[in-house]
Amino acid sequence: MCGITGFVQLENFELGRSKEILRKMTDSIVHRGPDSDGFWLDEQSGVALGHRRLSILDLSEAGSQPMISANGQYVIVLNGEIYNHLSIRKEISFTEWRGHSDTETILEAIVEWGFKKTLEKIEGMFAFALWDCKKQQLILARDRMGEKPLFYGKVNGTFFFTSELKALYQHPNFEKNISRDAIAKYVRKGYTVGEDSIFDNVKKIIPSSFLVFDPAEINTSELKPERYWSLESYIKGLGGHRFSGDLEEAVGAFETLLLDVVKSQMLSDVPLGAFLSGGIDSSLVVSMMQQVADKPIKTFTIGFHDEKFNEAVHAKNVSDALGTEHTELIVTEEDYLDVVDQLPEIYDEPFADSSQIPTILVSRLAKQNVTVALSGDGGDELFSGYDRYKRSAEYYAKLNLIPLQLRKLGRLFVPAGIAEGLASPNIESFYSYLNRMWKGYPTLVKGVNNLDFPFTASSFLENDIERLMFQDTLDYLPDDILQKVDRAAMSSSLETRVPLLNHRIVEFAWSLPIDFKSHNGINKWPMKNLLHKYVPRDIVERPKKGFSVPVAAWLRGHLKSFALDLLSEESLRKTDVFDKKIVSQQLKEHMSGKKDRHATLWTILMYQAWYYKHMQ
């Protein structure tokens, strides 16, 4: 795991000055790779590639980046891990290896296969920039599920790419032009959506995509990423050929596959462990790790004094059942609140999922003992783990009994927030409505009269619950969950790996009929039944909590001054984004205890805190 950044600049590219700029850019993301830095610049082409290294595989200089292919055609900077790189070495004809890093494997595979075929063949989490010295092209690519971040943009005749936005601030040609549309989407979701970044001149490479940039067209070409893998195409290709075995056979096939994937993701030249919350997903991942390990796995959890939020006792029970080497830390409210001040630095876009706080704390705990930690993210989206899927489908089925045109008339009789939901034309729109914040406030963001935006289309799926799972997999998972984990862990220079999001697992999960995943009213049926093979049922069968955080109480208590300061009329006037009357009314209602407005207020607070950190 590393950090990458760089630029292509055809005019005024002076070697010494450009290297100093590149060094500042890489230094700004030193937390992503504290072990070393590396630079490659070509004055004639105007190309600068920078890298910060967190050494995981091949700790020698042979694994350093930027790395040049043996034939001299390609230069690469790579963030992430390629889990099947040893098997790829056996498939290609190249034999003059300098080391055993996955970066070198990718380079030589690209020489032999080309980058498109290589992308189709590799398994891993990654974001990379590849300069083709022969074709004079820059290629950017991101992993299938979006585990690793990658931004790009063109500003003032300069093309940029980076793992984190803060690196771009160091280049004199970059301009911080905030996108009002991105803010409007952010306040609905709590995170920037899809290809958007918070800046209108910067985009994200969406998961499973690549971009080819020709510097000769820097002022004329429209940048259009292309997909090298598509979950939608895979599902459509299944047709009637879904998994044909019974439930027991499905669990057996899942176990074989997951063991293989976990084994591949335990490859490391540095200490490795896992997050363990005691829930189904993390417990299953640790169970598989312990099966393939020859010694106890190091596991980590945090707990809280407030029993309403404390799951540490459950994690300890799972650890005892599996025989892991477990580390637990009980954190205080002060520990939590100390992190709040650091959020705008760690998340250099506005980000309002408050579970970011415990994720940061458990990452810091793990980093004291290991450099790599496996995580259980992805199980809910793949195996129908959220109760909201079933609830949403049931609600919409009842709502849909009323003709759409009649429901649209609701705006004449009911509050705007309710009218939005009534007018939902399909279940995806209704689901998006149910899970959004700031319902019914079309003028909240100044200059944007409509806070609505397109949702992920999934009409090709017949089952309503599958349509919602598909939407979360392409939206909520990469833009919220994976962004949260990446920034939290990398702020402590900790690499996280997510076995359940290996694309073979993803494809297997989507090959299962929906009634296998939610069977007899039991969500995540294959995962739970496999876990019960290793951990007693009574230890892990309990209501789902997740990383709950008491933000509502904090805003009326220890964070009251923080909230009142950032949401004051003066602060809102300076940022000049939100309707002060709307925000003030919600703040007043929450502080008085009349209503719980913590979710909506937290989105505004996180934007305000981000603005004062990065835009002043």
TrEMBL record:
- Entry-linked SUPFAM superfamilies: Adenine nucleotide alpha hydrolases-like, N-terminal nucleophile aminohydrolases (Ntn hydrolases)
Q: What positions does UniProt annotate as the active site of this protein?
A: C2
What catalytic activity is recorded?
L-aspartate + L-glutamine + ATP + H2O = L-asparagine + L-glutamate + AMP + diphosphate + H(+)
Residue numbers for the site described as Important for beta-aspartyl-AMP intermediate formation? D377
**Gene3D superfamilies with a match to the protein in the record:** Glutamine Phosphoribosylpyrophosphate, subunit 1, domain 1, HUPs
Q: Name one GO biological process term.
A: asparagine biosynthetic process
**Residue stretches making up the Glutamine amidotransferase type-2 domain:** 2-216
> Which of this chain's residues are annotated to bind ATP?
I302, S375, G376
A GO CC annotation recorded here is: cytosol
Q: What GO molecular function annotations does the UniProt record carry, in alphabetical order?
A: asparagine synthase (glutamine-hydrolyzing) activity; ATP binding
Q: Which InterPro entries match?
A: Asn_synth_AEB, Asn_synthase, ASN_synthetase/amidase, AsnB_N, GATase_2_dom, Ntn_hydrolases_N, Rossmann-like_a/b/a_fold
* Recorded coiled-coil stretches: none
- Which CDD domains is this protein grouped with? Asn_synthase_B_C, AsnB
Q: Which UniProt keywords apply?
A: Amino-acid biosynthesis, Asparagine biosynthesis, ATP-binding, Glutamine amidotransferase, Nucleotide-binding
Pathway it acts in?
Amino-acid biosynthesis; L-asparagine biosynthesis; L-asparagine from L-aspartate (L-Gln route): step 1/1
Where on this chain does L-glutamine bind? D102
Q: What are its E.C. numbers?
A: 6.3.5.4
Enzyme class name: ligase
For this chain, the family text in UniProt reads: Belongs to the asparagine synthetase family.
Protein name (Swiss-Prot/TrEMBL): asparagine synthase (glutamine-hydrolyzing)
